[in-house]
Each structure stands twice: as C-alpha cells, then as structure tokens.
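Weekly structure sync, notes
Attendees: PL (lead), two postdocs, one rotation student
Agenda item 3: pending single-chain targets
PL asked that the sequence for the first pending target be pasted directly into the notes so everyone works from the same version. It is reproduced below exactly as submitted, 205 residues in total.
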Amino acid sequence: MPRHTREGALSALAAAGLALSAVLAAPAHAAPKAPGFLSAADLPPHPSSSWTAGRVTAGVPEATDRDTCLRALPGHQRAWHRDFRTDLDTGARQITVVLPDTRSAQHLVSALNKDIRSCPVRVEAADPELDVTMRDYGKLSVEEGAHVYGLHTETSWGASDIRLLSAGRDGRTVTVVDWGQLGGFAGAPVKAFKKTTTTAVNKLN
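Predicted structure, written out during the meeting:
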C-alpha cells in the first residue's frame, strides 16, 4: 500500500476510534442528575411510627395519571419521585420536575395550583358518593415560592382521609410534596408540613 494511502487509512481509523469513544462515553453524561430530595427525617413527625424513605426513582409515578389533583404532572420527561411510608396509615411522596427554562417552570406551578384548587369539583363529579373539601393554607416564602393546600375526602359510608399538597419552585425546577393519612383536618400537621415543603424547595439546589 502506498505511503499516502496507508496514512490516510490510519487517519480514518483514528477518527473512527475517536467517534466510537465519544458514543461509548455518551451514556455516562446523558442521564441527568436528580435534584436534591427530602429525607425521611424531613417529613412531619408521626406520633407512633418512624418514616421510611424509598429510593429516588426516575419518572412520574404511574398512579399520577389517575390523580385529578395533579393533572399537569404526567408527561414530563426530566422527572423523579420518592415515596415515604410509616408502619401505620400515613404515607407521602415527593415528585420533582426539571423544566427547560424558568418560564416553563412558572407555567407548571400555575397549572398545578389550578389543578389542586379545582380538584374537589372534579372528584365529586366523578363519584357522587365522595364529598371533598379544600383548604388553602397559603404561600411560603422560599426561593421562587411554594403554596400549601389541604384536601379532606369523606365517603357516603363515613370513611375519611386527609391530604396535604404543596407545589414549589426554585428556578426551572418544580417540586410537589404529597402527604396523606386517614382522618380529617384536625389531625393534619399543617405547620410541620409547611416546614417540610420549605425544606423540599431549599433542597432543589
């Protein structure tokens, strides 16, 4: 093989090798890093059971597709969630989404607040045996802000559960904290949940 042809072939092989190396290295940088999440110790203290935290998992939970209070969440690609549980009737979940820009994040938070405020009407329309009451616990001054709500659901046969929900934002990252247990508003740890929400937003950095 002539010298110039051999050198050209070696150059082509070297270029191909560099290209292959880039392809093989790409997956290590392709998976986005999850924002900071709550730990079990950050949840509102339970009077008779400790919290256990699950793993931070990529994606929005499948059950969220059926959650009429959080209709704006499903479909987002850069999302993670973490479940928390106690040994009794109390559980919680945090879902965090990283948006392309702050404007998109603002839009998502606005949509989530509308979803939560209008949720009782949709739930009652879907099931006449349910009575849902919403309480607005107001805004929190943390990063770009957060908002806390309470939802009490009672069935026609007397079953009752309480749910605390919050949506907050830091830059282009949005997080939702969802807490629930059997009972009513009287047993809801609103003050502690506000602290949990503040911690959740601060941990997004």
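Discussion points:
- Residues 1-31 form one domain.
- The chain has a mean pLDDT of 87.
Action: rotation student to compare against the earlier draft before next sync.
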